[in-house]
Write a structure and sequence with these properties.
mainly alpha, ABC transporter involved in vitamin B12 uptake, BtuC, two-stranded antiparallel ribbon, 12 helices, 4 strands, transmembrane, BCAA_transport_permease, transport
């Protein structure tokens, strides 16, 4: 029983980390049709910002610095590089892929390729006893952070003026601009929110793994894309469920099958989902033709 509890909560903690990454990806793509391959670099930037401040300042300050770093970099990327390319999606991909390679290389050039230990505060370094299992405290922190982010994103998209402006701007930017609304500011805000979530994921991911490294964000980005594709682009609830499922499947597969097979299982599920969607779309096309 204790093993089951530990695996479940560890899997949910990992899924929460994936959600923090995937929610930013889903938000940017779902609202702006921008596939941001530099998102992993923002995760790395947030992780190193937290690592540099941990031990010198309260951990809450390190988390805030990671969020601010991710948001500032994302806003700069959108303003300088993405904004001129909204009508050129292929160039967007090339630019973000290049940034996704260049920023981690810059981090490696400054701090080296070796992983750096991130010393979590005492409050997060301990364990909590639950149903006979000793569960690391940081798992609960990750799960709580994911729940808060999920609620905040749903509120932003459905209840705030900027959320409605962005959704309208994607559908008909010219009309929204003609109404005197500056869509550019709203788009920059969305990009900054995605970057802030990436920075938060980097900081909490450093706590989860106990260290930060230049390629950590890129590695996590792969599973972020897996989660987004399974959950659905722009579907926050679907992304949350997919993230939890992927995290649980990875943990249980690694424990009951073999270490390392969890990654394969996640990709296998992605393949099954894509094939199922392809078959479903094919059936719909046949039905339409028959009608």
């Amino acid at each position: 029983m204790s093993t089951l509890v530990l695996l479940t909560l560890t899997g949910l903690g990992l899924g929460a980390l994936y959600f923090l990454i995937a929610s930013g990806l889903s938000l940017i793509f779902g609202l702006m049709d921008v596939l941001n391959f530099a998102h992993g670099a923002l995760v790395t930037a947030g992780a190193y910002a937290a690592w540099r401040l941990t031990g010198h300042l309260p951990f809450a300050v390190a988390i805030a610095a990671a969020i601010a770093t991710g948001a500032a970099l994302a806003a700069l990327i959108e303003t300088v590089l993405i904004r001129p390319l909204y009508s050129r999606p292929k160039d967007q991909i090339l630019v973000t892929v290049g940034l996704g390679l260049a920023l981690p290389a810059l981090v490696q050039g400054i701090w080296g390729a070796d992983a750096r230990q991130l010393q979590a505060p005492k409050q997060l370094a301990g364990t909590v006893s639950l149903l006979g299992a000793r569960v690391p405290t940081d798992r609960f922190v990750l799960i709580a952070a994911a729940i808060v982010v999920l609620a905040a994103l749903k509120l932003f998209l459905s209840r705030t003026r900027y959320g409605l402006v962005v959704r309208a701007g994607v559908e008909d930017r010219a009309m929204v601009t003609a109404l005197g609304i500056d869509v550019r500011k709203a788009f920059t805000l969305v990009f900054a929110i995605g970057g802030a979530l990436a920075g938060l994921a980097g900081a909490l991911g450093g706590v989860y793994f106990g260290s930060v490294s230049p390629d950590q964000g890129t590695s996590l980005l792969v599973f972020g894309f897996v989660v987004v594709v399974i959950g659905g682009m722009g579907r926050t609830d679907g992304v949350a469920l997919a993230a939890a499922a992927v995290g649980l499947i990875q943990q249980f597969t690694n424990y009951y099958a073999a270490s390392g097979l969890g990654d394969f299982a996640a990709v296998a599920i992605l393949a099954v989902v894509l094939l199922a969607r392809g078959n479903r779309d094919g059936v719909r096309r046949l039905i339409r033709r028959a009608a």
